[in-house]
Write a structure and sequence with these properties.
It is a single chain. This protein is of the alpha+beta class and 277 residues long. The strands form two sheets. Strands 1, 4, 5, 6, 7, 8, 9, 10 and 11 form a nine-stranded mixed sheet that branches. A two-stranded antiparallel sheet has the order 2-3. A hairpin with a 4-residue loop joins strand 7 and strand 8. The longest helix is centred in the middle third of the chain and has 20 residues.
């Protein structure tokens, strides 16, 4: 083979043919540049149906074999659901209501009795009361829906605790109005999606948001610990005195749900226990 290649060249020289100074260049490497550089070619995607689950257990797109963890419709239907809690309001007693109304009138309260309220899971008030004036000169806003016993506790607290505390704010200061955020509401405690029903659901509770005065700026309920102000002193006084008339008193510092109001209710516990936080 080598002789056959050399022979034509020799003949060309013998006959006087001039050979080019530069020989032909080899054709460029047909491989892609990145392959020529030594990188590994990327294989084409596999056809649909050949993918495998990744290391996390999630399936990529395709029809790879896997265990179906999606609950069936029957399983979803039969899944355990939290039971809706029940709350029971005290049975109505017209004699007790008449006595309660008499006590409210002695304190100077202005009120009216409304039609019964009915809700689910025991929510409701057989004899709801709207208190327009808690004691003379002190209104309650907005409209309220309370049991008479709750209204009486509110009136007594206002008369014996809040009014004297307001007078300490200044010689010309007088309590004019108590603003609330809610009275009757059919809901769970702290507006949670689970758990026990709130005392609001039977008219046993009121959420006090702020106090308005004659001769002084309004005082909203808010976190005031360490302020060292007379407003902090007022809030501490009315909050502390509330537990003489209510069995539950919660406010700023109790939890996040009560950072902007005083929750006051008259729930009855064993042994007469009172929760004051």
């Amino acid at each position: 083979m080598r002789r056959l290649t050399v022979l034509p060249v020799c003949l060309a020289i013998a006959t006087g043919v001039t050979l080019p100074e530069d020989g032909p260049l080899p054709a460029e490497n047909p491989r892609p540049a990145e392959q020529a550089a030594g990188s590994t070619p990327v294989p084409k995607d596999k056809p649909s149906g050949q993918e495998k689950p990744d290391s996390s257990g999630n399936e990529e797109a395709g029809t790879s074999e896997k265990t179906d963890t999606t609950p069936s419709a029957e399983a979803t239907k039969n899944a355990a659901k939290p039971d809706l809690p029940e709350i029971t309001a005290p049975k109505p007693d017209e004699a007790a209501l008449a006595s309660c109304e008499a006590e409210l009138r002695k304190l100077g309260a202005v009120f009216d009795r409304a039609e019964p309220l009915r809700g689910k899971n025991g929510c409701g008030i057989t004899a709801p009361y709207n208190i327009e004036q808690v004691i003379p000169g002190v209104s309650l806003a907005p409209n309220s829906q309370l049991r008479c016993e709750t209204a009486l506790a509110l009136a007594r607290w206002t008369d014996t605790v809040v009014v004297p505390a307001a007078e300490a704010l200044g010689d010309k200061t007088a309590l004019a109005q108590i603003n609330h955020g809610s009275t009757y509401v059919c809901r769970r405690r702290n507006n949670a999606s689970t758990g026990k029903m709130s005392e609001h659901a039977i008219g046993n509770a009121v959420d006090v948001m702020s106090f308005e005065f004659k001769g002084h700026d309004p005082i909203p309920v808010s976190p005031r610990a360490g302020d060292g102000t007379v407003e902090e002193a007022f809030q501490r006084a009315v909050r502390g005195g509330a537990c003489l008339h209510f069995t539950t008193v919660l406010g700023p510092g109790s939890n996040a749900s009560h950072a902007d109001h005083l929750h006051l209710d008259i729930i009855k516990r064993r042994g007469g226990y009172r929760l004051c936080e």
